[in-house]
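Worked Example 4.2. Consider the chain below.
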Amino acid sequence: MSKHYKYYWEDFVPGSTREFGGIELTREAIVEFARQFDPQPFHVDEEAARHSLFGGLIASGWHTCALAMRMMCDAYLLEAASLGSPGVENLRWLKPVRPGDVLRVRTTVLEARPMESKPHIGLVRNRWDVLNQKDETVMQMEGYGMFRRRQAG
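Applying the procedure from the previous section yields the following C-alpha coordinates:
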Protein backbone atom coordinates (compact mmCIF):
# COMPACT_ATOMS: atom_id res chain seq x y z
CA MET A 1 0.00 0.00 0.00
CA SER A 2 1.51 3.35 -0.98
CA LYS A 3 0.98 6.53 0.97
CA HIS A 4 -0.79 9.49 -0.59
CA TYR A 5 1.10 12.73 -0.04
CA LYS A 6 -0.19 16.26 -0.15
CA TYR A 7 2.85 17.60 -2.05
CA TYR A 8 4.73 16.08 -4.96
CA TRP A 9 7.43 17.41 -7.29
CA GLU A 10 4.76 19.02 -9.49
CA ASP A 11 3.71 21.26 -6.59
CA PHE A 12 7.08 23.06 -6.50
CA VAL A 13 6.76 25.59 -9.32
CA PRO A 14 9.79 27.79 -10.13
CA GLY A 15 9.24 31.29 -8.77
CA SER A 16 6.74 30.21 -6.11
CA THR A 17 7.35 31.10 -2.48
CA ARG A 18 6.19 29.84 0.90
CA GLU A 19 6.57 31.60 4.22
CA PHE A 20 6.19 29.78 7.51
CA GLY A 21 7.40 29.39 11.05
CA GLY A 22 7.71 31.68 13.98
CA ILE A 23 10.04 30.19 16.57
CA GLU A 24 11.29 32.40 19.41
CA LEU A 25 14.79 31.65 20.64
CA THR A 26 15.37 31.70 24.35
CA ARG A 27 18.69 32.11 26.09
CA GLU A 28 18.25 28.61 27.50
CA ALA A 29 17.64 27.03 24.08
CA ILE A 30 20.66 28.82 22.59
CA VAL A 31 22.98 27.66 25.39
CA GLU A 32 21.58 24.12 25.47
CA PHE A 33 22.09 23.61 21.72
CA ALA A 34 25.55 25.17 21.83
CA ARG A 35 26.73 23.14 24.82
CA GLN A 36 25.93 19.99 22.91
CA PHE A 37 26.96 20.92 19.36
CA ASP A 38 28.92 24.20 19.15
CA PRO A 39 30.39 25.16 22.54
CA GLN A 40 32.21 28.30 21.45
CA PRO A 41 32.28 30.91 24.24
CA PHE A 42 29.98 33.42 22.50
CA HIS A 43 27.27 30.70 22.33
CA VAL A 44 27.50 29.38 25.91
CA ASP A 45 28.97 32.07 28.18
CA GLU A 46 27.23 35.45 28.45
CA GLU A 47 30.26 37.18 29.99
CA ALA A 48 32.62 35.91 27.29
CA ALA A 49 30.01 36.78 24.65
CA ARG A 50 29.83 40.40 25.91
CA HIS A 51 33.57 40.72 25.24
CA SER A 52 33.38 39.06 21.82
CA LEU A 53 32.98 40.57 18.38
CA PHE A 54 29.21 40.04 18.81
CA GLY A 55 28.83 41.98 22.08
CA GLY A 56 26.46 39.41 23.55
CA LEU A 57 25.18 35.86 23.44
CA ILE A 58 24.29 34.57 19.97
CA ALA A 59 22.87 31.32 18.63
CA SER A 60 25.08 28.93 16.71
CA GLY A 61 24.55 29.13 12.97
CA TRP A 62 23.98 25.38 13.07
CA HIS A 63 21.15 25.98 15.53
CA THR A 64 19.59 28.38 13.01
CA CYS A 65 19.94 25.69 10.31
CA ALA A 66 18.29 23.10 12.55
CA LEU A 67 15.41 25.45 13.35
CA ALA A 68 14.90 26.20 9.65
CA MET A 69 14.73 22.46 8.98
CA ARG A 70 12.21 21.99 11.78
CA MET A 71 10.01 24.80 10.47
CA MET A 72 10.17 23.33 6.97
CA CYS A 73 9.15 19.89 8.26
CA ASP A 74 6.23 21.34 10.21
CA ALA A 75 5.07 23.54 7.32
CA TYR A 76 5.03 20.99 4.49
CA LEU A 77 7.88 18.51 4.24
CA LEU A 78 6.29 15.84 6.44
CA GLU A 79 3.30 15.89 4.09
CA ALA A 80 5.47 15.75 0.96
CA ALA A 81 6.69 12.84 -1.13
CA SER A 82 10.21 13.79 -0.08
CA LEU A 83 13.12 11.50 -0.84
CA GLY A 84 15.77 13.54 0.97
CA SER A 85 18.37 15.92 -0.36
CA PRO A 86 21.65 15.58 -2.23
CA GLY A 87 22.95 18.66 -0.44
CA VAL A 88 22.96 22.32 0.46
CA GLU A 89 25.12 24.99 -1.08
CA ASN A 90 25.81 28.68 -0.53
CA LEU A 91 25.07 28.63 3.20
CA ARG A 92 25.57 32.08 4.74
CA TRP A 93 24.97 33.43 8.22
CA LEU A 94 24.28 37.11 7.63
CA LYS A 95 23.29 38.47 11.05
CA PRO A 96 23.65 37.16 14.60
CA VAL A 97 20.59 35.50 16.13
CA ARG A 98 20.05 36.57 19.72
CA PRO A 99 17.82 35.54 22.63
CA GLY A 100 14.29 36.84 21.99
CA ASP A 101 14.58 36.76 18.20
CA VAL A 102 11.62 35.18 16.41
CA LEU A 103 12.62 33.32 13.25
CA ARG A 104 10.60 32.36 10.22
CA VAL A 105 11.49 30.94 6.82
CA ARG A 106 10.73 32.05 3.29
CA THR A 107 11.50 29.49 0.58
CA THR A 108 11.65 30.31 -3.10
CA VAL A 109 11.68 27.60 -5.75
CA LEU A 110 14.56 28.44 -8.09
CA GLU A 111 14.40 25.39 -10.35
CA ALA A 112 12.44 22.16 -10.73
CA ARG A 113 13.39 19.41 -13.15
CA PRO A 114 13.02 15.65 -13.50
CA MET A 115 16.10 13.55 -12.80
CA GLU A 116 17.49 12.21 -16.06
CA SER A 117 18.56 8.89 -14.54
CA LYS A 118 15.35 8.39 -12.53
CA PRO A 119 12.38 10.03 -14.29
CA HIS A 120 9.98 9.13 -11.44
CA ILE A 121 11.91 11.56 -9.22
CA GLY A 122 12.10 15.35 -9.55
CA LEU A 123 14.75 17.71 -8.22
CA VAL A 124 13.78 21.04 -6.68
CA ARG A 125 16.36 23.75 -6.01
CA ASN A 126 15.25 26.19 -3.30
CA ARG A 127 16.59 29.30 -1.65
CA TRP A 128 15.82 29.53 2.04
CA ASP A 129 15.80 32.95 3.67
CA VAL A 130 15.57 32.84 7.46
CA LEU A 131 14.21 36.13 8.76
CA ASN A 132 13.92 37.61 12.22
CA GLN A 133 11.08 39.69 13.67
CA LYS A 134 12.57 42.84 12.08
CA ASP A 135 12.38 41.25 8.59
CA GLU A 136 16.18 41.05 8.52
CA THR A 137 17.64 38.04 6.73
CA VAL A 138 19.80 36.26 9.29
CA MET A 139 20.64 33.20 7.20
CA GLN A 140 20.41 32.22 3.56
CA MET A 141 21.12 28.96 1.80
CA GLU A 142 20.36 27.14 -1.41
CA GLY A 143 19.95 23.46 -1.89
CA TYR A 144 18.15 20.63 -3.59
CA GLY A 145 15.32 18.37 -2.52
CA MET A 146 14.25 15.16 -4.25
CA PHE A 147 10.54 14.39 -4.53
CA ARG A 148 8.44 11.64 -6.07
CA ARG A 149 6.53 12.68 -9.14
CA ARG A 150 2.80 12.12 -9.48
CA GLN A 151 3.45 10.77 -12.93
CA ALA A 152 6.77 10.08 -14.59
CA GLY A 153 7.49 11.28 -18.11
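The longest strand covers residues 102-114. The helical segments are 27-37, 41-44, 46-50, 61-75. Compare this with Example 4.1 before moving on.
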